[in-house]
Amino acid sequence: MDFGRPQQGERVRLQMRSLYILPTRFGWLWLAGTVLMQVVGIQMQSNGTLLLSFLMLSLFLLALHLTHFNLQGVELGCGAPAPGFAGDPVPYPIQVRCPGRSEGVRLRLGGEQAGAPLSLPPGDHELAVAWTPPGRGWQRPGLLRVQTTAPLGLFCCWSRWYPAAAQLIYPARRAGPVRLLAVATAPVAGAPSVASRHDGSEDWRDLAPHRPQDSPSRLAWKLLAQGRGEYAKRFLDRPEAPPLLAPEPGLPLEQALEHLSERIWSYHGRGLSYGLVLPGQTIAAGRGVLHRDQCLAALATCR
Amino acid sequence: MISAIGEVLLGKEHQVRLALACLLARGHLLIEDLPGMGKTTLAEALARSFGLGFKRVSFTSDLLPADLTGLNVFDPAAASFHFQPGPLFSQVLLADEINRASPRTQSALLEAMAAGRVSVDGTSHPLPRPFLVIATQNGLDQGGTSALPESQLDRFLMRLSLGYPPRQAERALLQGEGLRPDGITHAFGPDDLLQLQERCDRQHCSGALLDYVLDLLERSRRQPFQGHPLSPRAGLALVAAARAWSLLEGRDHVIPDDVQAVLAAVCEHRMDGGQRGDTDRELSQRLQEGVDGLR
Amino acid sequence: MSRAAAPLQWLTMGLLAVGLLGLSPALSLSLLAFGLAVLTALKLREARRIEERRVVALLQLVCAGLLAALRPELGPSLLQGLAILMALAGLLALELGAGPDWKALLRRSLQVLLAALPIALVLFLLLPRLTPFSNLGTGHGMGAVTGLSDSMEPGSIAKLSVSREAAARVAFPLGGGPPPLEQRYWRVLVHERFDGRSWRSAEPPFARPAAGQPTPAPPPPAPGEGIQLWLTEPSGLSTVPWSGAGRPLSADLNLQRSGELLNRAPGSQRRVYALTRTAEPGDWRSVPPGPSDLLLPRGENPKLEALAGEWRRLGSERERLNAAGSWFRAQPFRYSLEPGALPRQAPLDHFLFETRLGFCGHYASAFTTLMRAAGVPARVVSGYRGGQWVQPVGGTGYIDLRQADAHAWSEVWLQGEGWRRVDPTAWADGDPLASATAGAGSLAGAGGPWDWLQQQWWGLDIAWARWWLGYDSEQQQALVARLLGKQRHLLGLVVLLAVAISLAASLGGLGWLGRRRSGDPLRLELERTLRAFARQGMAPQAGETLAGFAQRLTRRWPELAGPLGDFVEQYQGQRFASTPSRSGRREAQRLGRVLRRSLNTGIQSKEAVQRVDR
After folding, report:
1. A12 and A160, same domain (yes or no)
2. pLDDT tens, residue by residue, C76-110
3. Which of A22, B98, B172, C262 is the most exposed place for a label (fewest CB within 10 A)?
């Protein structure tokens, strides 16, 4: 069941005019069963069978209204959508205000699979409906279909609406080369050694058993004096200034942005600092959730 | 007692309470702040008020795990090794500037915190009880530090930040009205603390309250991109801290207000993955507002 | 789909299977029901998707409908009703999401069913009945049931055991008490053929032509005309008991020339049937005897034939009958259930002249043979005699017939009178009926609580048969006539209106049930209080706790601090402390009322505080 004029607007209240209801295939089957029971009841002169037949007819009539009541008067609105990545299922917040109990409500965005049926008590609810945005930028999820077949599955009542709020979609995360600025010796982009954790001489890192080729100056004399054996101190070079990420030249912009998206995500996961340089926009190095979101948003809206 | 510690730490009553609740809930405390805000003072005052043994280790980059746990030393007289306990074997350990130590040392400390015992050369040595680690760390943006990974942050029941004292309190501090920690005469002993900890476990958590906590946890998991979801361990920590808080409030049962009081301290560092955002307390505040507190 | 869906649907299958158990496989419709049930079970086993499970629920309903046509009695009907309830719950479980458990589903199913019932009843009661399209479907596949009871051979029975098993129940819907005990003879079988040892029915009974009504169109009886309402347990016989007066209302009962009621449905099932008054009473009584009614194996019982030969000389048949009666009364016959077996040689002589000890079969057999030998047409009739009158609590009374009430008696043809019932057992000493007549009062109280329960149940069963199974086309027309009188043409409108009204009432009822706030009364009290504050423009902020909200309220209305504090403390104590109590909850509710009242009166809140203090 998917036709009818879609509703527009920020918030929409489902009413007689905007709700469509038709029997499902099971509903028609049910009616056929009712007729069969009627025939058997008349033929056998059986009161029980006749009553069951009338009961099924009565349930059919009742279900028409009960199904309709599930959506009657329900108000739909958009929440503030949190950003998500293109290509992944992204939750889109739909606010539902139910005047009464709404049962078996299924929401479906665009061409996605319908969600599991929900039973909503009276009051306000914010539901997350998944959809898969095709590209980055400010995206609208398309047509929202609300439908229910509860309580008996005899009727399908539905309505359609275009939610107004746009959702910020980051570029899809795809591993690939990015350009690292401000790292003088970045040999192979994509190697995990971006913070240049090479052995060096600046920062103490660890102890290791002493090898003959190690310099005596690296020997942990204090430990040796305590009788704990020969250890060599290992040092690290001070990491360079945090890298500035930029689109890899020579790649189409969209693909380069996708690589950047993945890189920012993985740097954040490892707790590293990074900056971002985009055409017309530069974000200084930093870290943290907010910094990450700022960088990703810049990617999403980059032209 | 809060007031006694409060006199030491002028104008920080809420933080003192949280620290105390942490102690009662058998949790470990991470204090994160700039130098000179009174972190050490708080730790020392806590230890002294219960008459607990107190040791302080300044973590530096060349601190080795064995420096913490102790080691088997060869005793020439007995011609055998005997275990020489390290500073870990105290009731309150103040681990200063924990983020300056190497990851290996950090993890040795945190393993000891989680298990309550230390293994050296295959022999395990139980730690004293009560055992409380108060770790401090500086703001992360300072150089030469290795941040605590998320899994280890999870082992701290609470993260506090003391912040600057209010003007009034700072004036009193400058006037020299603050008490020195060694001036605290302990009214309680370690046994009292153990008893209080046991009482904490008996604080009643009703079904309605657990529902509230569960809703909070669920909400944190439903929140996309707004921080790490809270683990079941975080839920346990939240309930334990709320229990201790309700005991401090003088009640025998836990109410949602207790949970909210400890929510920021318990959950913030688990949600932001150790990287404090620009706006303080934002995640837990948002979490709290996302769940109906009227139960 | 709720997790309770599969168990509910399997449970429904189980109920249907139990309902199928009692069916005789002889009827084509019951074969259909079997097949459908098996099909449904298979479908349920392989069903994965919701659509398939829905079809299973529908098939289950159809199964229940077929069962209802086959087993209309009270017990099976209850079972079918339960199956319908469960099938509907299974259907609801498919639609209502994962939330509700089976208890909630059953409750919901019951609600929906009850909501649908008024409309169904309106249609059921008011819609005119259609006549069956054809007579197929009934009476098919009936086998010839010639049970042992079809023949009676008393001489071979040494000891008759008394079985208290239920045989039949008969009620008299027109009111009036039961017939007097000595008039309670319920005939079942007529035995005409005698071979010297056993009595048999003349021919296979169903081959006989119908006696009374050659045309199968009896005049429709007036509603409530039934004078006897019978419920018989499965017997294996092809005839059913009746009183001998009236005529059957069901089309599949045939009144035979011999006065037997031939049942065309298989005797292995329970039967419910009604008899009605007839214009010409006792037409089977005037059917003249055939030659077989005088036949007897000559020479087997010489003494008997000699005795009868004396009576043969008497003039009329009536005199011969009287002579036989006085002869029986003069001899020392005694009634016994353990007479011992009779010899194969001249058994009746042995009984009449030597042992003089026997039960009804002996007497009927010997007396009928005597009469035949004396030239009077006679036959043996078996059936039930007597029966206990039971008055269930708050229901119509009925006569309870047990297998122990089985009896045999004779019928003799008297010229000018027709067939007359003669019960030779009554002449014997120690006849149980005579003693029952004497001590009728003491008999009624016999039996333990189990018997009492069973009698009550049978009372319900009778009422069910009378009010539910008896509601047919005629009753329906009578009801419409009573409701509408001459305005019959308005029936369609009335039905539509009634359906609309019941639909609206059902929807209203369901809506009320849905709106009714269920759950913790304490929580409801809080919500009431919050609504009261919301009307004043104060609503809790996101994530705010009750204590925090109360603080804000106190800042806005400082005079409310007292009742507010009391309520919050009591509420939180009940909600979160370890020992919530009923009285504590009531106290919280009372404090909530006080708080709302103080809020509403506003200024006079000081008094409210005082009230709380008091």
Report:
1. yes
2. 899 999 999 999 999 988 887 766 788 888 988 99
3. A22
Q: Which of B69, B70, B101, B95 is nearest to B84 (CA)?
A: B70
Contact B242, C576 (CB under 8 A): no
Mutation target vs B (from A233, A270, A289; most B CBs, 10 A cutoff): A289
d(C-alpha C59, C-alpha C40), whole Å: 6
**A271 with A147, same domain?**
no
Could you give the residue range(s) of every CATH 1.10.8.80 domain in chain B? 195-295
- Which residue of C553, C569, C571, C576 is the best one to mutate when testing the B interface, meaning the one whose CB has the most B CBs within 10 A? C576
How many residues comprise chain A? 303
3-class SS letters over B216-284: HHHHHHHCCCCCCCCCHHHHHHHHHHHHHHHHHCCCCECCHHHHHHHHHHHHHHHHCCCCCCCCCCHHH
Residue A181 DSSP code: E
Distances (CA, A) of A179 to A187, A241, A275, C172: 11, 15, 12, 102
Asked if A231 and A262 sit in the same domain, the reply is no
Q: Phi, psi (5° rounding) for residue A94?
A: -115, 125
Containing structural domain, residue A222:
198-238
pLDDT in tens, C128-153: 888 776 544 333 333 322 233 566 77
Same domain, A221 and A254: no
What whole-number distance in Å separates Cα of residue C561 and Cα of residue C551? 9
Contact C226, C250 (CB under 8 A): no
The mean predicted confidence, pLDDT, of chain C is 78
- DSSP state letters, C443-498: HHT-S-HHHHHHHHHHHHHHHHIIIIIT--HHHHHHHHHHHHTT-GGGHHHHHHHH
8 Å CB contact between A270 and A193? no
- CB-based contacts of B153: which residues, under 8 Å, 6+ apart? B30, B159, B269, B270, B273, B274
Whether the CB of B206 is below 8 Å from some CB of chain C: the reply is yes
- Evaluated on CA atoms B220, B224, B227, B233, the torsion sign reads positive
Specify whether A14 is located in the same domain as A161.
yes
The CATH number given to B195-295 is 1.10.8.80
- The CATH number of the structural domain formed by B1-173 is 3.40.50.300
CA distance B48 to B42: 10
Q: Chains with ≥3 Cβ pairs under 8 A against B?
A: A, C
Start-end of CATH 3.40.50.300 domains in chain B: 1-173
Q: Across the beta sheet with C261-263, what order do the strands follow?
A: C239-240, C261-263, C253-255
Dist. CA A297–CA A261, nearest whole Å? 10
Determine contact: C524 vs chain A, CB below 8 A. Answer: no
Say yes or no: A187 and A263 in one domain. yes
- Residues A142 and A12 occupy one common structural domain: yes
Nearest CA-CA partner of A124 in A68, A67, A74: A74
Residue C353 gets which letter from DSSP? I
Residue written as token pair 């001459």: C486
Most confident of B149-158, C320-329, C481-490: C320-329
> How many residue contacts between B and C have a Cβ separation below 8 Å?
54
Q: What is the total count of domains within chain A? A: 3
What is d(CA C27, CA C47) in angstroms, rounded to the nearest whole number?
Answer: 30
- Provide the sign of the torsion angle of the four alpha carbons A295, A296, A298, A303, taken in this order: positive
Q: How far apart are CA C183 and CA C190, in angstroms?
A: 18
Residues A22, A160: one domain? yes
Facing residue for B206 by CB, picked from C540, C546, C575: C575
